[in-house]
From TrEMBL:
It comes from the Bacteria. The keyword Disulfide bond does not apply. This is Aromatic ring-hydroxylating dioxygenase subunit alpha. Residues 6-110 form the Rieske domain. SUPFAM superfamilies: Bet v1-like, ISP domain. Keywords: 2Fe-2S, Dioxygenase, Iron, Iron-sulfur, Metal-binding, Oxidoreductase. GO terms for molecular function: 2 iron, 2 sulfur cluster binding; dioxygenase activity; iron ion binding; monooxygenase activity; oxidoreductase activity, acting on paired donors, with incorporation or reduction of molecular oxygen. InterPro entries: ARHD_Rieske_2Fe_2S, Cholesterol_7-desaturase, Rieske_2Fe-2S, Rieske_2Fe-2S_sf, VanA_C_cat. It comes from Pseudanabaena frigida.
């Protein structure tokens, strides 16, 4: 488990003054927004009797447990035990584990590790989020498998002609031209010329001159972000994903889609359907993979040239599992 990393775990606009429960790396987390708009994340377990705090409510900066009304402030310290007389001190052990939180790129990021800020790998610099010409759209997708398999699916070029035949891939031309892998500080990417099929539906109107070969860029940023950029004749399509590791068998991809064409809200439904169609084409295949966690040993599965980016991911993951 890579615990000493910032994980993007939810969309900022999904965190309000109504507490909610998140599960990340098998841990239950209560998360809410205070009256000063700060996002607070803490263990979702009241130290009094183990009740889920996410079932409670927010008062100012504090979250109140729904069982006996104990209040906890943002640093996890209990500040009120209603059943006690006011002159009885609050036990020093009445304190919750809290997690550092940041908001960036429209996601909430949580740090659940045990190293100080100065030693942490920072949240990655991600391009295009500040480009006001791009229309943004976001949503969730559930996978019943480990997030490492989901990440590799997003990095995998050679499956496109098979799994996405017709939607994007071209089964008549499955060869993948050799490509270079570029390393980032904590990730890697590759630009691949992909033999594509012509888009259908709404996009088909724009695509009459669409070339057979489409330039695509795929990348990953440890531990859970993937990036895909597709250069279509009529514009650019960018798909970011935060693949949230719920537990060893469950992943939710919090995707953000940026497009340079059809930038009105009217085209959002169509764009959303396209993302979900691609994910749904992948879902059964990815969930069928065994073992569900990507093996760390490069000899355990077979790697060919078109798997170069996934090989880089496996190497980095193995390195960080050792170091962090
Ligand atoms: S269990 Fe939370 S206040 Fe009692
Ligand atoms: Fe796919």
């Amino acid at each position: 488990m890579l615990k000493n990393f910032w994980y993007a775990v939810e969309f900022s606009d999904a965190i309000t003054s109504t507490p909610k429960r998140l599960k990340v790396l098998n841990q239950d987390i209560a998360i809410y927004r205070t009256h000063t708009q700060q996002v607070v994340a803490m263990q979702d377990l009241c130290v009094h009797r183990g009740t889920a705090l996410s079932g409670g409510w927010v008062e100012g900066e504090c979250i109140v447990c729904p069982y006996h009304g104990w209040s906890y402030q943002a640093d996890g310290t209990c500040t009120n035990i209603p059943a006690n007389a006011t002159d009885i001190p609050i036990p020093s052990r009445a304190k919750l584990t809290t997690y550092d939180v940041r908001e960036k790129y429209g996601w909430v990021w949580i740090f659940m590790g045990d190293i100080p800020e100065v030693e942490r790998i920072p949240i990655p610099d991600l391009p295009y989020f500040d480009d006001s010409n791009l229309k943004s759209l976001h949503g969730d997708f559930l996978w019943n498998t480990h997030y490492t398999r989901v990440i590799e699916n997003l990095l995998d070029i050679a499956h496109v002609p098979f799994v996405h035949a017709g939607a994007f891939g071209n089964r008549e031309q499955p060869q993948i031209a050799e490509f270079a892998v570029d390393s980032y500080p904590n990730g890697a990417g590759a630009t691949v010329m992909l033999n594509a099929s012509r888009p259908k539906g709404l996009w088909g109107f724009l695509a009459s001159k669409q070339p057979q070969v489409v330039k695509t860029r795929t990348a990953f940023f440890m531990p859970n972000i993937t990036f895909l950029e597709v250069h279509l004749v009529f514009g650019r399509l960018i798909v970011y994903n935060a693949h949230v590791p719920i537990d060893d068998r469950t992943t939710v991809s919090k995707w953000i889609n940026l497009r340079s064409f059809f930038t009105g809200n009217w085209a959002d439904d169509d764009a959303r359907k396209r993302v979900l169609k691609i994910f749904n084409q992948d879902k059964d295949i990815v969930e069928s993979q065994r073992p569900q966690i990507v093996p760390y040993d490069l000899n355990e599965e077979l790697n060919v040239q078109s798997d170069a980016l996934q090989v880089e991911y496996r190497k980095l993951r193995r390195q960080f599992l050792r170091d962090r």
